[in-house]
Please model this.
Amino acid sequence: MDGKFLWGTATAAHQIEGNNVNSDFWLAEHVTPTLFKEPSGDACDSLHRYAEDTALATSLGFNAHRFGIEWARIEPEPGEFSPAALDHYKRVLDDCHSKGLTPMVTLSHWTVPRWFAARGGFEQADSPDTFARFTEQVAKHLGPLMGAATTFNECNIPRLARLLFKLDSPLAQAGIQAMSAACAKACGSDRWSSVLFSSPDKTEAQMVAAHHRAVEILKAGPGSYPVGLTISMQAVEGIGPGNKAAEVADALYGPWLAAAKPCDFVGVQTYTRIRVGAEGPLSVPAGSEMTDAGYEFYPQALGETVRFAAKATGKPIYVTENGIATGDDTRRVAYIDGALDALRKARADGIDVRGYFHWSLLDNFEWTAGYAQHFGLVEVDRTTFKRTPKPSAVHLGRIARADSI
Ligand code: FCB
Model:
């Protein structure tokens, strides 16, 4: 990374590769009962079509590409590593370099191997060792080709999910428990733990430890590249006297901002804002425009979050995700413009932001919501997998090519 501003899109292995059959999510998508609207299936078939994706990214005007490697493919059984899977990701990395795209690799984007979930996931005391063993293989085989790496995607998602998706409610908990019990049973286990649905009280200490181990391993080489983590960071706005904004922000981000200490950068992932009054989080203002993900349309949140993360950590910032679920592409263009305006102002004020990765390149598998939410700059035909760029793709690509930041 030679000082240039990175312009790219962000993707995640499970959401685009397809047939991630050995992952915890694949099983959770197929048990009864499940919280998933539909299974991920072939997704965007990017396992086979990754070169089409990178060709699109380059031709649109981007100079970087964020993607995830899939632990469930690399370590299909405990301690059994697949050289073929590692070679696959080596080819993806080579392909990025050959197209002038700096690759930013996510080690773990929510999914884990099903055997790992069935032994208790990150609730297990020895899970940091297991994650370190996986990271060692990744570092050894892929390190020389990495442009940048992050350990966990949205490491704080168990905290955020409780607030944004109300995962603590009795109804949500009943659904999670029932789905997890069905997954455990399918594996002949008495336990099951998936990152997204886990309780931070049970998993966070081990995830923090796993993150620290992974940073150390990646930094030891081979290869030399910046290492960070990414935080789901919505702007927390205090409303009125005695508001609890500082407490809420600390509860959502505090432990992970601290865990960024050994990192070279922090990845900020912003979609909206959370307003907080004296009694805690407030509902969105009446009459607000809402996105298809149920978030308030509030692109300027990005300016606030990059400032917050930079001040809290003193680290350089990459925007590793930012985007909008909408069927109206003109709103995506407006969202991009609003977010980039806020980013430019933050940079003008001296905030060290070094890249912008839009979520996402493709319309993809949006976790429990299935394929109904459209975050992509590019539409994907669900049967032929034909990729068709939307006007917003051309719009952001033009900004990227002009390096207008
Ligand atoms: C983020 C996730 C990403 C995607 C977007 C819409 O929280 O990191 O995988 O689902 O939201």
